[in-house]
Amino acid sequence: MLEIFSALLIGMGLLFFIAGTLGLLRFPDVYTRIHAVTKADSVGLGLVCAGVALWWGDWHVALKLLLLWLLVLLSSALLSHLIAATAMRAGIRPWEAE
Question: In sequence order, what are the residues at sequence separation of 6 or more whose Cβ sits closer than 8 angstroms to the Cβ of residue 5?
Answer without folding.
Answer: 51, 54
